[in-house]
Amino acid sequence: MPTVAAKTSAYDPSFQQHLIDHGCYPTHHPDAAASVAAQPQNFTAIFTRLGMPTASSSALTMQNFYDFLNKNKQAATEKTTMSGEIRKLAGDMNIPFLENVLFNKIASLIMDSAGKESTLRRPKVDSYDGNIPTGLAKSVRDSLGTYIVPCEATDRPCLPNFFLEAKGKSGDSDVVMRQAWYAGCLGARGVHELRAWIDPNTLEDNNAYTIACSYEAGNATLIVYTIHPRLSSNKHHRRISSMPNRRYEYIMSQLYAINMRNNLAGFVEGMKIYQNARVWAKEQRDRLYAAANLKASSQDTASSESSSQESADELGMDGASS
Asked: Staple partner for 248: which of 30, 126, 133, 229, CB 3.0–4.6 Å?
């Protein structure tokens, strides 16, 4: 009886090297040329945008800060962290999100030489943002479903490009980083595939469209990353993208690391950056939805016109033969 390979997750020591071997690089990894050259082209623009003041963060008081410190002190579990500080950070932003969700539909990030899924476990993300599925043409969802529809319950938000992974006071900082990295790579891959469907000529702009965050209650630190694809020069990497003759690798770059418990200013800074990151990510999804719907509509129109012409031709031929 053949041996079934065990699935690996972010909790396993071999997980990080497994992703690196297949062209997914964590922040500051030497193989990704840990330098400014490894950053996305729009890194400075995103950094600046996330640092802009928001009305809600500017209104925070010292009492809000003390309330935050008390909740952070009580955050002994991941669930408490998520429902406490992080939901307070998000506020009422009218952005579709889900918490503690298993991505049980999304295609594996890594395939073996036979085209089968690797031994990576499917991620169960602490929190992600996406857009309502019905806002995207069904033909697009049907075509790219395994890349942009993360759950078998297909009414859940799709095209995830913003993620949060959090740990309680006893959490492992390396694990939470790997969880954010893995989820972010899946999100960046989905955006990449949708952009390839819309216009393959835009794929090599070296821009980021995906953000992943990690939060550790132990030191009240929020870290914000971009994840972006770039054309790989390593011919040994297995193909991560489904596009023929193109090999892409995924690079994680750190934007911010904010300690939110030292003083009111750090608390306000963390809330501001987190809120702005969610808004920025939604803007990217909205633009991609609009561009994809426009192409889908034009394809439907062309198909309808072609069918009408074929029907007219058939009628013409029938009339000629009579």
From this structure: 229
Residues pairing with 280 in the sheet: none
Which position has the token pair 């899946």?
Answer: 186
| String of DSSP letters for 75-134 | --SHHHHIIIIIHHHH-S----EEEEEE--SSPPS-B-TTS-B-SBPPPEEEEEEEE-GG
Residue 259 and residue 302: Cα distance in Å, rounded? 54
Q: Give dist(CA 110, CA 75) in Å, integer.
A: 34
Q: What span, in angstroms and rounded, lies between the C-alpha atoms of 34 and 27?
A: 8
User: CA-CA distance, 243 to 241, in Å (whole number)?
Assistant: 5
Query: What is the pLDDT at residue 1?
Result: 43
User: Which residues fall within 8 angstroms of residue 60, CB to CB, at 6 or more apart?
Assistant: 264, 267, 268, 271
Tell me how far apart the alpha carbons of residues 97 and 120 are, in angstroms, rounded to a whole number. 24
CA distance 107 to 101: 15
248 three-state secondary structure: strand
273, two tokens: 């950056």
Span of 10-19, 30-39, 210-219, 295-304 with lowest mean pLDDT:
30-39
Average pLDDT in the 45-60 region? Answer: 92
Dihedral angle sign, alpha carbons of residues 38, 40, 41, 44: negative
Is the Cβ–Cβ distance between 76 and 169 less than 8 Å?
A: yes
Which residue has better confidence, 207 or 85? 207
**SS3 (DSSP) at 218:** coil
Rg, Å, the chain Cα set: 22
Predicted model pTM = 0.87
